[in-house]
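G., before I forget:
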Amino acid sequence: MSVTEQPRGPGIGGWLADKLFRNYIWRSIFRSGYPNTPRNQMLVVATNVFLHLHPTRIHKTHVRITHTYCLGGLTFFFFLSLTVTGVMLMFYYVPSPGQAYTDLQALETNIRFGMLMRNLHRWMAHGMVISVFLHMMRVFYTGAYKPPREFNWVVGVILLTLTLALSFTGYLLPWDQLAIWAVTVGMNMAGTAPILGEDTRLILLGGLEVGDAALIRFYTLHVIGLPLIAAIFMAVHFWRIRRDGGLARPL
Amino acid sequence: MAVAAQAVPRATAVTRPRKEREQELLVWPDLVFIEFIAAVLFTLSFLILSAVVDAPLLNRANLDITPNPSKAAWYLVSLQEMLLHMHPALGGVIAPTFALGGLAALPYIDRKTEGQGAWFATPYAIRITLFSAAFASIFLVGLVLYDQGRHVNVITNIAQRVDADWEWPGKLAPFQNVRAIQTGWEWHIPVPEAAQLGPGEHDGELNWPQDFQNVPMPFNGTSGPDWMRWGAPDFLPGWMQAMYWYDLNMNTPTFVVEQFIPVFIMVALPFLLIYILRRLGWVQDVRGGAIALFTGLMTSYFVLTIIGAAFRGAGQDLVMPWDVPKID
Ligand code: HEM
């Protein structure tokens, strides 16, 4: 990280880079120098908590878009964006049957960018379900579940289930006819399961039909329970990709 | 033991030969750049989408007004579609659980390392995929159409032009739809007087469906000779009682329609698919079979989702997409 690796030229760009990147404060935040040399480019990935989800080097076939179509990354992108827009929605949303629907209406009419946030959250949720399916298909057809990646595939199947559960619990929250009946249909399906079905239904709904107990349960699962679990499994998923030697490659 | 051998970490997968270094690129900038562009593109396109198309908000939730049709969320609509054709527990819970379990078990069944890391890398992979997708779509659409029974009207209409009194023969009821086996099908087998099977009057024949609607399960505690009759097992905890078929009598026609035939189809079709692909010589190993089954599963999910979301109108009737009522 020696200082001589900084871009230094007579021009204004060099002057700016000097001012921005060679001072004490900047260096206290970003340990590595400006990433214009291979060494610094690796350091920037290795020393940054977010970037270090990546390895520092990657096989060139895996950079080709047509290998992954970015689908896993896209799923993760949706997850992050859903967290951001979801937090925005939480500022205005009260999970009670008396208020939820009115809050949604207010969001659409009274609150600046409320409708935009709601739309983004809704469409990205659909996007995430679609992209997680497509990601699974890309992993399958590239044979990437084979040893040593067996377990990561299983983690993936869990993530698929969690994604569907996240979407399903969110579906109830607008508290409109679409919401309550879709959840009623879904929970009736679960209720038919042999032996455990009726209990599962009762526990998830907190009652016999979709009412206030169900709303608060779905809300809690949707905004904290399931996202936390999903985040943990994603951490395992990404960790395992690196532990298993990066993405799968022909032998 | 084979299991122990599996647990040994595969050193080869983690340490890489030196010369591969030349094949590698730096994540910064090569990958980070792509990720950045992708994130920007998708942020922009979803911003535009959200500015143009509003998320739906129907009337306030009201359990007293049932919308017709009421549908599950689109990714569960395929299960809802299955409910129309079989026992709800089977279509909504058991079959999907097996599908998910099978998915999770896949890498432990297909353990060969060949064919990884590249699209369709094993021989015939693309052909197997296309064939399985076509196979699953054709059979699913065919089965849904058959179970809907529209052909009955069509054929009856045509036949009545010729013979105004024509009706679908009772003997051929199973060709109307699955449910007709239970509700519209009648036949009798003569039974000699000597063979008195159970209590009740002997009318000299076995009639479908009446005589099959109350067949005692073996050891159900309420049928058979005296030593096979006992009281309800109240001493067992509730969940065990739920599993024990005390006093259970099988409704055979219902069982055939709701459970036996659907399970048979869901097991037999995958076998048939694999059998054909093996006869064609395209499936030669586990990977080939896995491609066929995975493709079949994904196609089934997809086709059933389309049918359930776009072609099911009021009363879950099969209609054209523009005839599906908009609910508010
Ligand atoms: C929330 C859901 C998920 C997220 C955020 C996610 C994320 C990712 C990412 C970022 C990668 C790197 C390569 C790529 O982008 O394709 C990856 C790889 C992988 N994913 Fe996922 N994934 C998810 C769900 C799944 C599912 C449902 C499966 C399979 C059932 C799965 C199995 C795998 C496997 C086996 C790899 C390694 C692929 C290889 O070596 O080429 N993941 N995942």
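Chain A has a mean pLDDT of 90. Chain A touches chain B through 93 residues (CB under 8 Å).

More on Monday.
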